[in-house]
Amino acid sequence: MFDNLSGRLEGIVKKIRGKGRLTEADVDEVMKEIRTALLEADVNVTVVRSVCNRIREHAIGATRSQALDPGQQVVKAVNDELTRALGGETLSITYASKPPTVVLMAGLQGSGKTTNSAKLASWFKAQGRQPLLVGADLQRPAAVEQLRTLGAQIDVPVYSDPEDPVLTAHQGLEEAKRLGRDVLIVDTAGRLSIDAEMMEQVRLISGAVDPDYTFLVIDAMTGQDAVQTAEAFHETLKIDGVIMSKMDGDARGGAALSVKEVIGRPIAFASTGEKLNEFEQFHPDRMAGRILGMGDMLTLIEQAEAAFEQDQAEQAAAKMMEGQFTLDDFLDQMQQIKKMGSLGNLMSMMPGIPKELKNADIDDDSLKPIEAIIRSMTMEERTFPKVINGSRRARIAAGSGTQVGDVNRLVKQFDEMQKMMKKMGVMGGGMGKKGKKGKKGRGGNKRPKGLGPGVDFDPSGMELPGLPGSPGMPGLPGLPR
């Protein structure tokens, strides 16, 4: 979503990082470029003005203070102001002391309210809660049926009554109490545009259930229209936060960077794909890091922890370090990675990924040729790839619908990966039979010793060896090379 803005800001950051001194003329030039980048990203003009004024204030202060690295101080200022524009703090959900915690979903028709109601229910369920969905959108044909279908996929019950949306919402609240459900999510009707009737209906529903949280679902693809929608809803309802849908689309990102400054409410959640698990709590600081090309390793780690079973992950790590990792294990790891979300989204979180790889059209289908090749192998071939001779390669290629060259490349790269992992295990004392396991820790973005807070640590300078498509490593079959 922020690809164009990210590319522009990364270029600006590279120009000023590491400069021994910055003059006020340098600052003026940088600010001109930042202002242009934000305007081209469809950020609200008022927001652009206030963000740029604050960055300029920091930048001028850095030049006059003769800081050790004024360029890096400006980068920090840009990061801080992007974080502030995106909401500053992560919205923390506080649950009602007397269940259920009631969440009201509002928004225009087509913004993704119904789908995001189910995604939010799935998120609450992952937090150990027991949600109930209420279908109070009786305007749109099949809206309730869609909610029931989505609810069945995530094993969350759905309550609805065809008579009256306000009565349905109230009865849904009573049903949640009767069933002992501790979270109630009410999906309301939308319109193609703001009108008095819709606003009155959602206001009455809000009065009937007295929500703990009212979330406005905004389609990120609608740009500044989304901000105007947010203003209109906020005048009628007490909006607590925004759910930004279609964050995986081609929108320029202006709505996300404008909504907090305009209505004073943060983005609470972001929908990053079509799948029900492609939904995450929104962290402004992490998103700012992504925009500036610094990655978002914390979210990547959290998604990995949710997708991987700890025992399986430890066994896989031990096998890697001992050089006993097989193609069958590799296939299993690929299935686990797919649970973490779209490959494009995962790439955007990794620091040091080449721009051409980030911008490549990578989707889950990119892994299918690799899966097909491995599935066309016998168990012996998956365990001992060295037995794969010419005739076997031809058979595997025919069975997987790929070329012999694709099979050769996969086998060769897997052999190189095994050797590298084995060397790492030996060098680190590893997790081999003779080595002791190192202490495990979760530090997220741990700072190297000797670096000051928020100044010199730059994850974007990191390289990730062995990543398909990275420099010096040809792409696996089906992935860009």
TrEMBL record:
GO cellular component labels: signal recognition particle
Catalytic activity annotation: GTP + H2O = GDP + phosphate + H(+)
Residues that hold GTP according to the record: 107-114, 187-191, 245-248
CDD domains: SRP_G
SRP54-type proteins GTP-binding domain ranges (all copies): 266-279
EC number: 3.6.5.4
Pfam families in the cross-refs: SRP54 (PF00448), SRP54_N (PF02881), SRP_SPB (PF02978)
Keywords: Cytoplasm, GTP-binding, Hydrolase, Nucleotide-binding, Ribonucleoprotein, RNA-binding, Signal recognition particle
Compositional bias (Basic residues): 433-449
Top enzyme category: hydrolase
GO biological process, any: SRP-dependent cotranslational protein targeting to membrane
PROSITE patterns documented for this protein: SRP54
Domain notes: Composed of three domains: the N-terminal N domain, which is responsible for interactions with the ribosome, the central G domain, which binds GTP, and the C-terminal M domain, which binds the RNA and the signal sequence of the RNC.
NCBIfam families: ffh
Subunit structure: Part of the signal recognition particle protein translocation system, which is composed of SRP and FtsY.
Name of protein: Signal recognition particle protein
Organism: Ilumatobacter coccineus (strain NBRC 103263 / KCTC 29153 / YM16-304)
